[in-house]
Amino acid sequence: MNMQSRFKSSSGRTPEISRREKIVAGFAVAALLFSAAAYSSVPWQAQLVTLALSAASFAFLFLPVGDDCRYSKTARESWSALKRFPLFWFGLALFALMLVQGLNPAFGVMERAFYWKLYSQDFVRWLPSGVDAPYVSESARQGGMNAFRQMVVFGAPWLLLCALRCGVSRRRSWVAMSWVVAVFGVLLVLWGVGMRLSGRTELTPAFGSRNTSFFATFLYQNQAGAWISLVFAVTVSLFVWHWQQARDAGAKGGPHLVVAVIAALLVSAAPFTMSFGGMISLAVLGFVITPLALLSLILRSGAWRGVLLGGAAAGGMLALLAAVFAVTSDYSSVEAKLRHKFETAKSKSLDDRAPLRRATWELICSENGRFAPTGYGAGSYRWVSPAFLVRQPEFRTAAGKLKAQAVYAHCDWLQMLAEWGIAGVALVGGSILWSAWFFLKNIRRRTPALPILLGAIVLFMLHAGMDYLCYSMPLAGMTAFVFVGAERLGLLREVRVAGRKAR
């Protein structure tokens, strides 16, 4: 039995997609696209809309939809699937921790016109504590952030993850969703490339920044680079799917050729983000993991000629696009950034994020680790870190004052430890360990899309150790999409055994 035949239902007919699944998938895609399009979900209004769309996708797991399709899940079946999903319970426990921290502040923030300061206040000492900070702030340079806003930032991707895992099971639904993501992704990337070529450094005059330059709607170019890598993984998994469909149908062409063009555009545009970590991630994904995965497809299918011709065509398009970009573009800024990275590593034996990580570690260990078990509180980093940043020479003026502030630690795992403590990081670690166990347990059912999608997530996690990515709603949401896609498109369905239905 070949791989593609195992993709089909045991009855040989393509199952109908239920109305409930279409609604859940529709709201999920809307949340993914809106979060990336709306100033990359930095404004609090965009964050709330993204949360509302994700919550709608989750809610339609249970709401009545008047669906008479025999493949439609009932609310009871949706709940049964949800309660068997460990990441639902890990996330629920983490949000409970954040809520307690937000309701039990040990510190308050006093704002003035041009500065702010922390003050101590009474709190229940045997409960996790936090910081009573503004949800939205125009006076403090850090902007608003507290436990409740952070619950919004992480709540939307978590609801999206649960909705996708429990509500979207048909591969045709995933293929349709992946097409929308791929097309939207390449349009956003081309917009960013156009901005680079024209020399624009701001989204609009109303959304300019002194500290960085926009790439399309992304304020932070490293987040743009990471987002492109995730979209690339979705695109290549889509290529694998359509190529298998075309091969089984005996077609010489097909949608996979269009997908190959989109993938080539994403790879060629990556340097324009000027994201060092993003370029490395995409290079490993595009030139190491993907070729090995496609090679396994060749060996398993035996279709050498078709795959080699398709690969040659995709490689030719990629080379042509790369040549056009190289001739028409100025890479001086990219070269300058790369040179700075290598010179810093050579002269100081560290990277330019190291002072932030040192300060964050000192924050975690302060007062003999009194806050280490449950952290300083969700959304507290930007408020409690300045006292530790000023101890680093890179953040201190000659007069001993703080010359620069940081709202993120540029190491997500350390920031999680500082804000959520050992308890919160243990929940995150438990989610990662369960996910690794799940895919290793089912590794024999893998398709070539699995290493590509999981490889993108692993690279994202490594990149998050050097930057702030997990705290971005578009990135967290896209990671959730890729994760569930790794199961839906990356694993073969189980065949009918002893009269039981396939998954």
Provide a descriptive summary of the structure in words.
The structure is a single chain. A hairpin with a 4-residue loop joins strand 1 (105-111) and strand 2. The model is unreliable at 1-12, 344-350 and 495-503 (pLDDT under 50). The protein has a three-stranded mixed beta sheet with strand order 2-1-3. The chain has 503 residues and is mainly alpha-helical. It starts with a helix and ends in a 15-residue tail after the last helix. The protein has helices at 3-7, 19-37, 44-59, 75-83, 86-103, 147-167, 171-198, 221-249, 255-269, 276-301, 304-328, 332-348, 354-369, 381-384, 386-389, 412-441, 449-464, 473-488; strands spanning 105-111, 116-120, 130-132.
Physical arrangement of strands within the biggest beta sheet: 2-1-3
Helix coverage percent = 55-70%
Strand content: under 5%
Global morphology: globular
Largest sheet: 3 strands, mixed
Q: Write down the secondary-structure element order.
A: HHHHHEEEHHHHHHHHHHHHH
Q: What is the tally of helical segments?
A: 18
Compute the CA-based radius of gyration: 24 Å
> Mean pLDDT, as a whole number?
84
Catalogue the unreliable spans: 1-12, 344-350, 495-503
Number of strands: 3
Distance between the termini: 18 Å
* Helix-strand category: mainly alpha
